[in-house]
Amino acid sequence: MTFCYETIEGMRGKLASGAISSVELTRESINRITDLNPSLNAVITVNEERALDAAAKADAARREGNSSPLLGIPMLHKDIFCTQNMPTTCASKMLEGFVAPYDATVVKHLNAAGMVTLGKCNMDEFAMGSSNETSHFGACKNPWDTAKVPGGSSGGSASAVAAGLVPLATGTDTGGSIRQPAALCGITGLKPTYGRVSRYGMIAFASSMDQAGPMARTAEDCALVLEAMAGADPLDSTCSDQVVPAYSAHLEDCVQGMRVGVPKEFFANDLNSAVAETIEASLKELEKLGAKLVDVSLPSTSLGVSTYYVIAPAEASANLSRYDGVRYGYRCDNPTDLQDLYLRSRTEGFGEEVKRRILIGAFTLSAASYDQYFMKAQQVRRLISQEYEDVLSKVDVIAGPSAPNTAFALNDSSKSITDMYMEDVFTIGANLAGLPAMSVPAGIVEGLPVGMQLIGRRFGEVDLLRLAHQFQQRTTWHTLTPKMEERH
Ligand code: GLN
Description:
Layout: H1 8-17, H2 22-40, E1 43-46, H3 48-63, E2 74-78, H4 105-112, E3 116-121, H5 155-162, E4 168-172, H6 179-185, E5 188-191, E6 212-216, H7 219-229, E7 259-263, H8 273-288, E8 292-296, H9 304-319, H10 338-349, H11 352-365, H12 370-394, E9 397-401, H13 417-422, H14 428-433, E10 437-445, E11 448-456, H15 461-474, H16 484-487
Parallel strand pairs: 2-3, 7-8, 7-9
Antiparallel strand pairs: 1-3, 4-6, 5-6, 5-10, 9-11, 10-11
Helix pairs in contact: 2-3, 5-6, 7-15, 9-11, 9-12
This protein binds glutamine (GLN).
């Protein structure tokens, strides 16, 4: 019997009834990674021994009466989370072989909940990208079509869940990196409110937007995992101390009369027409649930990408200055002096996209261009946040597409760097404004998944999760699987 496409909730029931043990589930996951990962490249580190040990401990804890909902469930972490005793590379040559001396808070929380970590997922280098092609360890593939990208930067996490390697992987989202890959791989992903989940031990890209979240099959599973991930952390001063709601207890709360704002700018020229039709059909499903669709406008949507690509690289250039070849990470051979050490370690250790961002950031932060670019971008960010706030004072949730297209081809030379940046045109606003947002499977276009995006009020994860959950009670998109093994 195979459990590979089972949800966390499903596995939980089978673990509780004794139909399967965590050691058996973990073995099945490891075998599946061994079989399928050569064609997916979704996982870049596996620690079998540690996983089986954790699984055995979870089984023992269960026998002693522990019934924590996540106990014994196998999972993977995006390789941006620091893990003790396991390498953390951020998919960069710069951190190849780096082993952190501590666990990220997210890792600690999920370990404490009894989850079994199998290893680490591929990603775009330092989380910069929308296709998982900037990884030092090679591109990750989309299980629905291995000639296509899984999206990025949490591409490995999305691919792993979609292929049934694990029911959960963590992701991070700075401009769309949980939602866009979740959409392209047909899974459910949630980017929480900025500050809901601790960033401690999560390697920094753009600190004012970076946020960790769950990538799983269903909203119900995301709710269970967010409950364990979220919460105040004395080690991250930007982490909120607001009480973490019991998200999973509110999934059935009534959505009758919920106002769902549909921004007209999300259905503009950038959107593929088949994707648009799919999203429109999903909006009708929300209406059938009793939600009220309201036309709204976010006029600055088209400014989001350019604003983000000033702010994110500026923050990245500051954050990535710590990789200097001295303290940790890659160091060049035989440096002639300190300058040479810095220069060559960074030149050789970072990939092209990361270097591009560092250069852009250093430029926009320089005295001569600060006012023109960085200050301006901060002002536009404020404007965009205000627009979202105004709209969300009239509606409960905003809905639209997660990404403008379905998964695109790997190594697509017709796609320019700015085309790639446009992948996040619908997701970036929620990051600039710090709002929670999720992507929910909403259809299939030419054999590839489409995701619907839901954006909520600050700390409004409860609304997103219950709307998504009830949508998933009416639809089957989240249950479709890519049939990897038939092709294999
Ligand atoms: N694709 C966007 C970028 O390249 C977003 C990345 C992210 O959310 N980490 O920056």
